[in-house]
Design a protein that fits this description.
Blueprint (H helix, E strand, L loop, with lengths): L1 H11 L4 H12 L2 H16 L13 H28 L18 H4 L2 H4 L8 H14 L3 H21 L5 H22 L3 H12 L1 H16 L3 H12 L1
């Protein structure tokens, strides 16, 4: 099935160079990927749904501990993805498979030497962003469904179209991300540490929110800086 989908995608390449470039730009944009989902998560962090008579419909502390637990679980999911990628058989990305003959944009071909060093399986994008979407869904089904739809159309599908991942890379990654968040939220949501952290956001927002911003920035940018520094540490 993976090969059939990849071959079908390869037949679409080149029909509209402008469309191909637009998909590549979308796939490479942190604003269009992580930042959008983090914005939805921040909306859930700040807002408190109300009943018609003005009473609080949901517990804001529980919502915020759910968000923190989901974010922590997503980081653990990314770490697990690295371990799984290193332990499983190496899988070349579809656009690098000569048998598929994918005519992807030149900008993507320039990344071929770097991409050949990283396995296609599993998709860390799918793990991270479906994990975040799951956390949002556990607070609000409406916004969660929107997050899942956005992650599927604007994050996962472009990576399959460009040959950066096989469909199974995305599906398995999504399952890992969803699973880590469900388990992580259930284990951590009622923990004293997260509740104290939420309390700290109210008692000392001047310190909490700059730190929270830095953490969300790393999540939105796929932990790129953390990965870069980890590679530097390996050279020491």
């Amino acid at each position: 099935m993976d090969i059939i989908i990849a071959q079908w995608m390869s037949q679409l390449h080149g029909r509209s160079p402008l469309f191909d470039e637009a998909v590549l730009t979308l796939s490479a944009s942190h604003l269009a990927k992580g930042a959008m989902l983090v914005a939805i998560m921040l909306f859930a962090w700040i807002s408190v749904p109300l009943d018609y008579d003005g009473r609080k419909k949901s517990d804001p502390i529980r919502n915020r501990t759910t968000i923190l637990a989901a974010l922590v679980a997503s980081v653990f999911g990314e770490t697990f993805a690295r371990l799984l990628s290193n332990c499983s058989a190496f899988r070349l990305r579809p656009f690098l498979e000569t048998s598929l003959d994918m005519q992807v944009p030149d900008r993507l071909q320039l990344l071929a030497p770097e991409m050949m060093m990283n396995s296609s399986f599993p998709s860390d994008h799918a793990i991270l962003f479906f994990a975040i979407s799951t956390g949002i869904f556990m607070i609000s089904r409406g916004f969660g469904a929107l997050a899942f739809l956005y992650s599927s159309i604007f994050i996962a599908l472009p990576r399959v179209y460009l040959g950066l991942h096989y469909m199974s890379d995305i599906v398995i990654g999504a399952i890992i991300g969803i699973g880590f968040t469900i388990v992580g939220v259930r284990l951590m949501r009622n923990s004293g540490i997260l509740k104290r952290t939420v309390g700290w956001s109210d008692s000392n927002p001047v310190i909490f929110y700059p730190i929270f911003f830095l953490f969300l920035f790393q999540v939105a940018t796929m932990l790129e800086d953390v990965r870069a520094f980890s590679q530097l540490i390996k050279l020491l």
